[in-house]
């Protein structure tokens, strides 16, 4: 009988409750126990795990590595899926391997390339992957970049050079502020003059990428790559407004494989593209499993379990989806939380703050449901 696998997810997206569900429902019928840590006691990931702890706040990257090693030892972890402080953790992969812990994460070199979007664009364009025109701006050179884009007929936008998701993304407008902008939901538009005034008042540099607004569809290619740099799985998830779907079109998959295999994006990565004119260009590269990875279950694929097998040295082989699921949309769904607990009174930074209680009964949930992060 195969032994139990103990998996730890540190501070991660709420959607990864579905990642955990898929590990438990693995086609190998192997016992999986899940440990989760977070700073938010109301994270659904904590409630969905078999054991859970609150993470200490304010640790340096090096301090977090020590905390992680201690967690692995105390909890008997076999596979660690790091999101927070991923760069510091993968830099110490040998320390984890020495105590029998497999990291489900890329190489340190890959994390370093893709944590900075400007460095990432330069790197992938050097191997022939198309990228949009972009400018890295620190201060008032923002205006010149916007004018150059607008003169070419594009709508300008900007986002932090370092960051995840859509945090800090804004689209530039020159339309005067009006009541129409107070109707409906808030939108990401900001007037250029207001941005320039804010930069002048701040008296400090920013670190933004300015680029044209790219068009839909957006295609996120989920990749599973071995330490031999061979891509075992590549499936595109398409997004066009509310409608979602899947694709195996090589326009998206070929450049994704080139990036995943060529830059050491081992295990699970997510590579995003959008349209610039009539061709796909790279939007972003995520070196962690995507929050929407569970949606591949609609294609008959259990990517989290394949990734854990690969981390344990069990090659799942090349994975072709047996079918492509029908188009779908995503909706919010309810998940139980742990009972409210009083704030901890003790000061030990790495102490057990949530008891290792069994997870609450988990109601069935549609594979495509999405919780807020």
What is the strand and helix layout of this fold?
Blueprint: E1 5-9, H1 17-24, E2 32-38, H2 44-48, E3 51-54, H3 61-75, E4 79-81, H4 86-91, H5 93-98, E5 102-103, H6 108-114, H7 117-126, E6 135-137, H8 142-151, E7 156-160, E8 170-173, E9 189-191, H9 192-202, E10 208-212, E11 215-225, E12 231-240, E13 243-247, H10 250-262, E14 267-276, E15 279-286, H11 303-311
Parallel strand pairs: 1-2, 1-4, 2-3, 4-5, 8-9
Antiparallel strand pairs: 6-10, 7-8, 7-10, 11-12, 11-14, 12-13, 14-15
Helix pairs in contact: 1-11
> How many beta-strand segments?
15
**SSE ordering:** EHEHEHEHHEHHEHEEEHEEEEHEEH
Low-pLDDT segments:
343-353, 355-373
β content, as a range? 15-25%
What's the alpha carbon Rg, rounded to whole Å?
22 Å
Helix content: 25-40%
Please give the largest β-sheet.
5 strands, parallel
Trace the largest sheet across and list its strands. Answer: 3-2-1-4-5
What is the SS-derived class?
Answer: alpha/beta
Count the helices. How many? 11
Mean pLDDT: 91
Distance between the termini: 38 Å
Shape: globular
Can you put this structure into words, describing what you see?
The model is unreliable at about 345-355 and about 355-373 (pLDDT under 50). About 25% of the residues lie in helices and about 25% in strands. A 5-stranded parallel sheet has the order 3-2-1-4-5. Strands 6-10-7-8-9 form a 5-stranded mixed sheet. It is globular. A hairpin with a 2-residue loop joins strand 14 and strand 15 (about 280-285). It starts with a strand and ends in a 62-residue tail after the last helix. It has about 375 residues and is an alpha/beta fold. It has helices at about 15-25, 45-50, 60-75, 85-90, 95-100, 110-115, 115-125, 140-150, 190-200, 250-260, 305-310, and strands at about 5-10, 30-40, 50-55, 80, 100-105, 135, 155-160, 170-175, 190, 210, 215-225, 230-240, 245, 265-275, 280-285. Helix 1 (about 15-25) packs across helix 11 (about 305-310).
